[in-house]
Design the sequence.
């Protein structure tokens, strides 16, 4: 068995174990979950507001990605960038997480972006997004981290320190790495200048703001479904960001499925904002809500892609 097949087998086994554990927890809480589900009081206006805020956040992240590509001398129209970004988002539901990054680079090249610029912006954008998330949790979510355990705050601050120190040399370190990747894939080697530090930190600021936007949208969703669940906005931002990062870093789970929800339930319980049943209902509801907001734009972009339209004629 080669390494690729072995890794896929390990992923499948670990993901299966995670689903078994989650299923056991749900069975144990089935009565409480029924009671919590009975308390649902859906307010569609708040759900619409939360969804609109998520789409605004998407728009900011797409612009951040375009900024990074422009720094490497390549560009896409905003319309093309939206099509590429939303389509590539579908890749995050494949185990491994790297598929969405690779799809972002490949699809951008098909739209006319340079190989180095597209690949570099995809890699750097992902790293900046993760690092900014750790920064948000470390700065505004210490209560959540302390409630979960002292080691969580230490890990978050270490991750933030590594991120800050690592971002400084990234504009100079990434170009040769990206050129090596494009050469290996048969691409054309292109001379690329280091990105300006102001551009990189501007992208960091946009990514940090995006985590805050997601957290506020999550709070609106919670109030739209279970008005009894309340708490400070910073708590919701920290819970959303921390649980999303956990899901992202668990490579075996497509889209962080299971891992994100488990972390969210634990964070709600640690802060005392909701019981296990209410937290589980919110975790599952937020998963379905975000799934629609991520997958639907991607499917629409696929349907409206120039190549698809041409083949349908």
Sequence:
């Amino acid at each position: 068995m080669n390494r690729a097949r072995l890794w896929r087998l390990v992923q499948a086994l670990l993901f299966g174990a995670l689903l078994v554990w989650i299923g056991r927890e749900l069975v144990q809480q089935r009565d409480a979950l029924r009671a919590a589900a009975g308390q649902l009081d859906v307010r569609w206006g708040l759900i619409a507001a939360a969804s609109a805020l998520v789409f605004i956040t998407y728009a900011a992240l797409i612009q951040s990605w375009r900024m990074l590509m422009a720094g490497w001398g390549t560009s896409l129209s905003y319309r093309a960038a939206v099509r590429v970004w939303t389509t590539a988002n579908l890749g995050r539901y494949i185990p491994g997480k790297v598929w969405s990054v690779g799809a972002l680079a490949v699809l951008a090249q098909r739209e006319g972006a340079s190989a180095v610029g597209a690949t570099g912006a995809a890699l750097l954008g992902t790293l900046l997004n993760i690092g900014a998330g750790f920064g948000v949790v470390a700065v505004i979510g210490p209560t959540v981290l302390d409630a979960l355990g002292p080691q969580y705050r230490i890990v978050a601050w270490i991750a933030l320190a590594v991120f800050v120190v690592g971002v400084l040399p990234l504009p100079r370190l990434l170009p040769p790495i990206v050129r090596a990747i494009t050469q290996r894939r048969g691409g054309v080697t292109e001379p690329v200048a280091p990105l300006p530090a102001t551009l990189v930190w501007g992208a960091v600021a946009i990514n940090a703001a995006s985590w805050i936007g997601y957290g506020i949208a999550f709070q609106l969703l919670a109030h739209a479904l279970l008005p009894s669940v309340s708490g400070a906005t910073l708590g919701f931002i920290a819970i959303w960001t921390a649980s999303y990062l956990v899901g992202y870093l668990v490579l075996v789970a497509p889209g962080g499925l299971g891992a994100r929800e488990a972390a969210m339930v634990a964070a709600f319980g640690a802060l005392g904002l909701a019981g296990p049943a209410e937290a589980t209902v919110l975790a599952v509801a937020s998963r379905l809500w975000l799934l629609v907001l991520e997958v639907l734009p991607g499917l629409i972009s696929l349907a409206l892609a120039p190549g698809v339209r041409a083949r349908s004629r």
Summary: The chain is about 80% helix and 0% strand.
